[in-house]
Structures are given as structure tokens and as C-alpha cells.
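Whiteboard transcription, Tuesday session. T.W. wrote the C-alpha cells on the left side:
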């Protein structure tokens, strides 16, 4: 009997031991599983956050790339002051995403540069001749051509000159004369036309120094390197302290008005921005600036 009791007690102790081992095994197995689940849960949001950051970065770069465009305006030299000092800053204030750069020279030179590949977006010449030539060559958006401004051709002498010139025809009395080269400078073409109609052109050829643009002519007279010159009224007004206007080209000496046309260049990479700039130049606000520089509205 005693032996049986001992055997029963031994069996009960063995069963308890097995139960304890079994429970410990379950806990040991569960621990890594829980850790794995927690790790997966932690990793998933991290991956999601990285994707969102990349997306935001991409959107930012795209926005930066799209918020700025640069256009190049090729304009007659006589427009430089009005453009650089007033009009371009005004336009950029209204269109902060657009940067406007200007290149200024004689209209003939600019025409040639555009023909040879200058990537200008807007062209504004000091005569219709150059605009018409580019338009006929298919290099201008024809429906954007606008005869925006009118100017005058004037005879000038150095400030304080004692030459005593009183009328346009008195240029014949000068010992040295500065004119724009008629081959490429509209002011020179207008001067040739007016002086030819007055019967003076051939008489002064041995006294003429030809400038590559109207600014050169203006500077020669201002520096007294020439006794007289023919420029635009607007140029003379811009240096009123250094040159004196004698007279305008006589009525009838020119075949037509001195017109400044503007247009969008065909195949521009920034058509919308270029058209906006041309439309801006037509506004009353812009026209007021032009008038302050001596221009009048074209027809």
C-alpha cells in the first residue's frame, strides 16, 4: 500500500514538471513573434513617411522649375533707357515668375542676329523695314505685330555750341557730322531720306562719320567729336544737358512717320510670356512711360 502511494506521488510530480516546461516553451516562442510583429508595424509607417517626403521634394522641384521663365527682348538702342529703367521692372513686378533680359542695338543688326539664330522672344525695331523683312521670312508671329510708337528725327549740336544753326538744313554748314549707318541703322536711313529730299545728302559725304547705332551718334555729338548729328528726339531728350536740339526734320522730307513696331518672334520657347510682354507694352501704364521718354503713340 505504501509502495502504491509513493508511485502515485511520483507520477503527479512528473506531470507538474511537464506542465511547467510546456508553458515556458509557449512564452519563449511567442516573444520573437511579437517582436517581429512590432518591427513590421514600426517599419511600415517609416516607409510611408519616406515616400511622402520624396513626393513633396518632387513637387517642390517641379514648382521651382515652373515658376520662373526668362525671355529675351531684342530692341532698338533708342529704347534701352525706357526699358531698363522703367518698363522691365514694372512688367516683372506684375509677372514675378518671368525674368526679362534685353539686348539693344541698331534694328538692322538685331534683324540679322535673329536671322542667324538669336533666340529672342520679342523684337521691337525703330522702323517698319526690319520688322517687315522678318515677317516676310516667316520669323515673326504676324498677328502680334503692332505699330506701337512714333518718334521724331532731329538735328542736334553739342550743348553750348556757338555754330548758330537754326534749321535742319544748316547741317550742311557743319565741319564734322555724325550719322547712323544707313545700311543697318534706321535713324541713319531716316537721315539719308530727309537729307536727300532736301538736296543735301551728296554734299556732306566727305564730312560724315557713320555710327553703328544711334547711341554712338548721340555720344559723338555730346562729346563734341562732331559738330552736328541726326538722332531721334527721344535720344536727345535723354541727354538734354549735353546736346541741344536745333530742329525736327522738315515736314514732307520723310516719306512716312517714324514708327516703332513690336511683335513676338516665331518659335519662341516662351510664347505666353512673350505675348504678355507685348500686351503689357500696349497698356496705358506703359504708354505713359514711353511718353515721358519723348515717344508718342503709334498708329
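and on the right, the sequence the group agreed on:
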Amino acid at each position: 500500500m505504501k509502495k502504491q502511494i509513493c508511485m502515485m506521488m511520483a507520477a503527479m510530480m512528473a506531470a507538474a514538471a511537464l506542465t511547467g516546461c510546456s508553458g515556458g516553451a509557449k512564452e519563449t516562442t511567442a516573444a520573437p513573434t511579437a517582436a517581429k510583429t512590432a518591427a513590421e508595424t514600426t517599419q511600415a509607417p517609416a516607409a510611408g513617411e519616406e515616400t511622402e517626403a520624396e513626393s513633396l521634394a518632387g513637387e517642390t522641384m517641379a514648382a521651382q522649375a515652373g515658376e520662373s521663365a526668362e525671355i529675351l527682348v531684342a530692341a532698338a538702342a533708342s529704347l534701352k533707357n525706357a526699358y531698363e529703367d522703367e518698363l522691365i521692372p514694372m512688367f516683372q513686378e506684375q509677372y514675378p515668375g518671368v525674368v526679362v533680359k534685353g539686348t539693344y542695338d541698331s534694328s538692322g543688326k538685331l534683324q540679322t542676329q535673329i536671322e542667324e539664330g538669336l533666340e529672342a522672344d520679342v523684337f521691337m525695331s525703330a522702323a517698319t523695314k526690319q520688322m517687315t523683312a522678318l515677317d516676310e521670312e516667316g520669323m515673326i508671329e504676324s498677328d502680334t505685330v503692332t505699330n506701337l510708337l512714333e518718334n521724331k528725327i532731329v538735328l542736334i549740336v553739342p550743348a553750348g555750341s556757338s555754330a548758330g544753326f537754326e534749321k535742319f538744313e544748316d547741317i550742311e554748314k557743319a565741319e564734322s557730322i555724325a550719322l547712323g549707318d544707313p545700311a543697318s541703322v534706321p535713324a541713319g536711313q531716316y537721315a539719308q531720306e530727309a537729307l536727300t529730299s532736301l538736296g543735301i545728302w551728296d554734299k556732306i559725304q566727305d564730312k560724315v562719320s557713320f555710327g553703328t547705332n544711334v547711341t554712338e551718334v548721340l555720344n559723338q555729338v555730346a562729346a563734341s567729336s562732331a559738330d552736328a548729328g541726326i538722332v531721334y528726339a527721344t535720344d536727345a531728350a535723354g541727354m538734354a544737358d549735353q546736346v541741344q536740339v536745333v530742329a525736327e526734320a522738315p515736314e514732307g522730307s520723310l516719306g512716312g512717320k517714324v514708327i516703332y513696331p513690336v511683335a513676338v518672334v516665331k518659335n519662341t520657347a516662351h510664347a505666353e510670356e512673350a505675348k504678355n510682354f507685348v500686351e503689357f507694352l500696349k497698356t496705358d501704364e506703359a504708354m505713359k512711360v514711353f511718353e515721358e521718354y519723348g515717344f508718342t503713340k503709334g498708329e
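Someone added at the bottom: Residues 1-8, 10-65 have pLDDT under 50 and may be disordered.
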